[in-house]
Amino acid sequence: MSTIAAFYGGKSILITGATGFLGKVLMEKLFRTSPDLKVIYILVRPKAGQTLQQRVVQILNSKLFEKAKEVCPNVHEKIRAVYADLNQNDLAISKGDMQELLSCTNIVFHCAATVRFNDHLRHAVQLNVTATQKLLLMASQMPKLEAFIHISTAFSNCNLKHIDEVIYPCPVEPKKIIDSMEWLDDAIIDEITPKLIGDQPNTYTYTKALGEMVVQQEGGNLNVAIVRPSIVGATWQEPFPGWVDNLNGPSGLIIATGKGFLRALRATPMAVADVIPVDIVVNLTLAVGWYTAVQRPKSTLIYHCTSGNLNPCYWGKMGFQVLATFEKIPFERAFRRPNADLTSNTFTTQYWNAVSHWAPAIIYDFYLRLTGRKPRMTKLMNRLLRTVSMLEYFINRSWEWSTCNTEMLMSKLSPEDQRVFNFDVRQLNWLEYIENYVLGIKKYLLKEDMAGIPEAKQHLKRLRNIHYLFNTALFLIAWRLLMARSQMARNVWFFICPPYNL
Ligand SMILES: CCCCCCCCCCCCCCCCCCCCCCCCCCCC(=O)SCCNC(=O)CCNC(=O)[C@H](O)C(C)(C)COP(=O)(O)OP(=O)(O)OC[C@H]1O[C@@H](n2cnc3c(N)ncnc32)[C@H](O)[C@@H]1OP(=O)(O)O
Ligand SMILES: NC(=O)C1=CN([C@@H]2O[C@H](COP(=O)(O)OP(=O)(O)OC[C@H]3O[C@@H](n4cnc5c(N)ncnc54)[C@H](OP(=O)(O)O)[C@@H]3O)[C@@H](O)[C@H]2O)C=CC1
């Protein structure tokens, strides 16, 4: 019997961000391995016209929860969705709900965050810093609380090259930042943002670093731990390989490549692609919850959940394997054949942008206009290249994360727990993982049918023929123009192929 699974039995667990990528996999694993848990409270806001209940039903009806529902058939009764908006100062939780949460909660997993790199600083601070502070305040009033687990990111100190499992101080105190966001207007915030974030690449990593400081400063008397995952990718093994449901991390760019929009990327092939499967992050998080509650470490422990130091994969290898997978499992209705280059040179990137991105987009829009349709490709390309530019920082650098606490924790687990809550990234076979990842994107994100693969392959063949035809036509036109305008070209040509009558 797994000690960790048994630990969560009978517990009341509060999860923020449960409707997000990580939160859903966390809930699923809890229900599947500890079906006798008492209740999972999730803080949810209504979204896209759906009520809280509709959101919960949609999550539970997804393929992700099929196995969990077999093990725990009354999963609907064990989830309690609590209305909350972490953007509001009082978190918008009703008095009655607050009373219940305060009196019953045993464990808190705080996953909610804005993960957008370009979010306005005010919003990023509100969610990633102020909401964390408010939750810690709530946690301090929970008499039955055993552990508070905060999910941060391994990139919260990405301005450093070597990162230890410690909290690094930020130049300006989080409290001062929180206060200033309350009275500064948007224009001034925009102006001071670059100065405040300093050598951090964006407001996301900056506010996640501030969030960690808040945990350290205000989680004083609580049993707190921080988990820092790197780039969270599709599931490796559990509940099944390849599950993913959003465009974050590599997923969006894999789609853009598979659909033939993205043909070149400014990336360093030998930089470490520190992707970590979401099920590994969840297993570590649950193990951390157990250890923090049972062992009660004297200080706040930080756990790096990264792959690079134990089982590195590189962007070049990852890109190569992604392309190889498209040969076997192509995406439907591609714009061009998937074939991308990784280049680390800015000039080459600009050349490829002009030739492989803008030129085809302009030509295609011209064709759409000619056929009476609305042009859309240049707009799409514009958005794609803006997205790529935001991600470039992370695909042209490598970081070293020490993983002493994570390794220490692994050594404390029984063999059964090491199996059920496996977070040993050394066991991961990257080639297999990447193939399943691409397959998962096709099935669960793009919702494409596997039966359509032969037609998708036919479509790629047609695109290849169009490509050859286009290149041949281009060559002939260039040759004709050259022959018409340059005596030297004519001389060279007649030297190589003398006319018959000479
Ligand atoms: C030797 C050589 C070998 C040769 C082989 C070479 C072969 C090469 C082949 C290449 C194959 C490619 C495969 C590899 C890809 C690697 C790339 C991986 C990059 C990963 C970097 C991530 C680093 C993360 C580090 C930090 C970890 C965290 O904690 S962060 C959590 C994750 N957060 C994110 O991933 C970012 C979230 N998104 C954003 O910040 C924003 O959305 C944005 C800045 C990306 C865009 O914002 P904007 O305001 O402009 O628009 P928005 O409304 O948000 O979206 C616009 C449209 O873009 C779509 N979108 C959103 N996110 C992404 C995304 N990540 N990728 C692609 N597209 C995205 C979004 O849906 C919108 O679309 P529409 O709905 O159609 O409008
Ligand atoms: N994905 C990644 O690559 C990485 C993620 N992380 C960290 O992991 C955690 C989870 O990330 P991930 O699951 O990927 O992110 P998602 O964007 O998928 O999920 C974010 C969650 O936060 C919730 N949330 C956002 N704003 C509010 C709000 N105002 N009130 C209530 N809830 C809100 C979202 O709810 P809603 O559905 O209503 O929007 C959603 O449930 C984050 O802390 C992130 O920093 C760390 C490293 C990498």
From TrEMBL:
Transmembrane parts of this sequence: 466-483
The family this protein is said to belong to: Belongs to the fatty acyl-CoA reductase family.
Reactions catalysed, as given in the entry: octadecanoyl-CoA + 2 NADPH + 2 H(+) = octadecan-1-ol + 2 NADP(+) + CoA; triacontanoyl-CoA + 2 NADPH + 2 H(+) = triacontan-1-ol + 2 NADP(+) + CoA; a long-chain fatty acyl-CoA + 2 NADPH + 2 H(+) = a long-chain primary fatty alcohol + 2 NADP(+) + CoA; 18-methylnonadecanoyl-CoA + 2 NADPH + 2 H(+) = 18-methylnonadecan-1-ol + 2 NADP(+) + CoA
Gene Ontology molecular-function annotations: alcohol-forming long-chain fatty acyl-CoA reductase activity; alcohol-forming very long-chain fatty acyl-CoA reductase activity
Superkingdom, taxonomy of origin: Eukaryota
InterPro entries (alphabetical): FAR (IPR026055), FAR_C (IPR033640), FAR_NAD-bd (IPR013120), NAD(P)-bd_dom_sf (IPR036291)
Cellular component, GO annotation: peroxisomal membrane
Residue stretches making up the Fatty acyl-CoA reductase C-terminal domain: 357-448
The protein's role, per its UniProt record: Catalyzes the reduction of fatty acyl-CoA to fatty alcohols.
Pfam families hit by this protein: NAD_binding_4 (PF07993), Sterile (PF03015)
Location(s) in or outside the cell: Peroxisome membrane
Chief location: membrane
Thioester reductase (TE) domain segment(s): 15-284
UniProt key word Oxidoreductase: yes
Keywords associated with the record: Lipid biosynthesis, Lipid metabolism, Membrane, NADP, Oxidoreductase, Peroxisome, Transmembrane, Transmembrane helix
Species per Swiss-Prot/TrEMBL record: Pipistrellus kuhlii (Kuhl's pipistrelle)
Keyword Oxidoreductase annotated: yes
GO biological process: long-chain fatty-acyl-CoA metabolic process; wax biosynthetic process
Protein name: Fatty acyl-CoA reductase
Membrane topology term: Single-pass membrane protein
E.C. no: 1.2.1.84
